[in-house]
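Table S2 (text version). Query chain:
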Amino acid sequence: MKRFACGRNGDTDLSFLHCYSCVNKNHGEKGTEQDYISGITIGALTANVALNPKISLLNGFLALAVWSALTIIIDFWNIKSKRFRKLVTGDAVIVIKNGVIVEDALRKVRLDIDSLRSLLRKKNVFSVADVAFAVFETDGKLSVLKKENKQTVTNESLNPAFVPVNPDFLPTEVISDGTVNQKNIKKLNLRENWITHQIKNAGLSSVSDVFYAELQKDGTLFIDHKKQPSPS
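Corresponding structure-token output:
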């Protein structure tokens, strides 16, 4: 029985490697969500064939072959047809435009404000107000174009002796989705009546009208008001 199990595992391992290499040979290091799902599925099928004696090797190989063929066909049409590619992978979505968060876009890609700020920080952007455009790509990554006056290369090119000043604090969230972040305003030593005054100056009636607000390095309050959801 042990000899049979070893042979069975050896055969399925070779089949797995062959199917996986066929499916992924054109992707290189650039893997999409579809690629990961394909790899996981092939691995699961292989494990079932190798470990479950009730599944015959023939049926297991057929399942691997069918799934691999289906994946290759989908990849082929992804390359050949833009319409098919759009159907499978979707479109890149603009989530910030000229320093303003596009709420409908966040809902469309199911991205919350904390995740958006985390993705921005990975791009060395610590304030929404500094962003000209931010695009949520189909692979889940964020592409960011800073406003021209916020690009560090501009300062350095204009003045080679330019030395950036270390800020006392990073741009910090004060309001998120109509709720004041009490922890942060205490840390920043802000008063709520000052925040309310800034909101009034921005033409809004209350905190509940604010989608996102953050204190900038220069002491000003960046405010992005809530927008009505567009009709679907």
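Notes on Table S2: The chain has three domains: 2-87, 91-164, 167-232. The radius of gyration is 26 Å.
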